[in-house]
Amino acid sequence: MKPATEPSPSGPDRPADSSKTATPRLRARRKALQSGFSLLARGEPQIWFTGGMLAICLAMIAGLMLLILASGLPTFWPRSIDWLVLRDGTLEIGEPQLTATTNVAPAADDPLPARLSHYYRTENFDITNRHYRWLEPQELRPAGILRIPNAMLVERVEWGYLFGLPLRLQEQIALSDNDQQQLDELTAVSRVLEFIASALSQGSTPNRDATRSDTAAAFLTTAQEQLKQRLATWRNDGLRRSLATSVEPIKQVRLTDDGAWRSLDKVAAESSIEAARIVIVDSQQFLRRLTAVLPKVKSQRGQLERLKHELSRTDAKISKLRIAVRQAELDTQTVAPVQLDAAHYWLEQLTNLDLQVASVVHLKQALADLLDDNELIAQLCVICDQFQDAQLPAMRESISMQLSAWRRPLDEAPAAVRAAIERYTVGYGELYAEKEPLQRAIVALQAELALGQAVFAVPSNAQAIQGLSPADNADLSAGHVSKRAAEQIGTLATDINEGE
């Protein structure tokens, strides 16, 4: 039996092989693509171009970062400061910035390289009226650039930077906290006694007894003299204790009856000291001490700025009250018949009287600790009682009468204007009570900031270097300025606060 015939692969049920049916041209093209013969078709140049551009961009970014670092990092390292001696005898001090070539040839005896000009940052704008200066070679003397290792660049609060030689650092010695507290107590009591004596001398109490008043004035004068002596003694003892704990070699004092500063070892032990200070002349100690006190000074300056800001806000509130009065005048189309500034004095006096009531009470409690004469203490207590019971009410009544006379023209003013002015007078008295402690704190901080003073020598006038001896010139190049050398080179002592 004959087997069945299998269907052919190329039959109708199965398509024919495409490789066998494709044309020779298609087969050649497919072979060329499979072998990678065309790089453009595969995108190879675009890939290399993109990678190259990316590498160039990264190199440019890295170069820019290096340029920024190279230009910016030297700012954090101080440069050398040069003392420049010009041919006309003038002096300059500054920081070299750059050196450039010039077509002007220097003098024959000038050892500097030919055709080099120097660009210096001179600052000291309050003296020189410039910040930078070009110096040509012919302007400088031979060896006219002195490198001074101890020169300093100081950033001041006003007038910008200062270049100079540190001559000395003067710092007044403060009392200890306990001594300062006791001194403040004595000062406050003395002020209250002065206020009482001034009030009695004005004779504000009606029908007062002249003999009793003279007796009270005599007791007050005696008490003030004793407090004055007690103040001087306490200040003298406190300053001597502070001087004993100071390790600085140069100590100077100012006596009560003499305003001149003199060395402590030349002052007698029984002399009364009004103020004391230490003086630092060594440049290294100068820098260390200045660095040590700067954080405290910055903190005090920040506190001072905050107090001034609070004071400005208080003044702004007073201005708003004044504007409200003007607005009431505009709304009613009238003009207030009184001047607001005329009431300020009486409002301030009335506020001060309220503050003095508490001070008199405190005075009676503190007299026993401050004075030694029991009879005098008893008499002062009687005077304080009489002053509190009779004088203070009479003074308040007198001030109230003055304010009433000032308000009298307001009876014919519109109600809106009267109400605005009444709010102004009440608000001004309250705000003045807020301003008083702020102003006292500002004055105390400013006095404390003025205790320290740094003195620098900077060039000031022409023909300053002539006549300088070789020894003084050598000291100058080493960064030291003696008193005689300072006089010869004509340096100007510029004082700045430690915080500047």
What does the model show?
This protein is α+β, with helices and mostly antiparallel strands and 500 residues long. The strands form 2 sheets. Strands 6, 7, 8, 9, 10, 11 and 12 form a 7-stranded antiparallel sheet that branches. The chain has 13 helices and 12 strands.
Report how far the terminal alpha carbons are from each other.
125 Å
Give start-end ranges of low-pLDDT stretches: 1-12, 204-208, 462-466, 495-500
Alpha-beta content class = alpha+beta
- Characterize the overall form: extended
How would you state the average pLDDT, rounded? 78
Q: What about the largest sheet?
A: 7 strands, antiparallel
What is the gist of this entry?
The chain has 500 residues and is of the alpha+beta class. The chain has helices at residues 18-21, 24-34, 39-42, 44-72, 125-128, 177-202, 210-245, 283-332, 344-370, 374-407, 415-449, 470-477, 483-489; strands at residues 82-86, 91-101, 116-121, 132-135, 140-147, 152-155, 161-172, 251-255, 261-263, 273-280, 452-458, 492-497.
Which helices and strands occur, and which strands form pairs?
Layout: H1 18-21, H2 24-34, H3 39-42, H4 44-72, E1 82-86, E2 91-101, E3 116-121, H5 125-128, E4 132-135, E5 140-147, E6 152-155, E7 161-172, H6 177-202, H7 210-245, E8 251-255, E9 261-263, E10 273-280, H8 283-332, H9 344-370, H10 374-407, H11 415-449, E11 452-458, H12 470-477, H13 483-489, E12 492-497
Helix pairs in contact: 6-7, 6-9, 7-10, 8-11, 9-10, 9-11
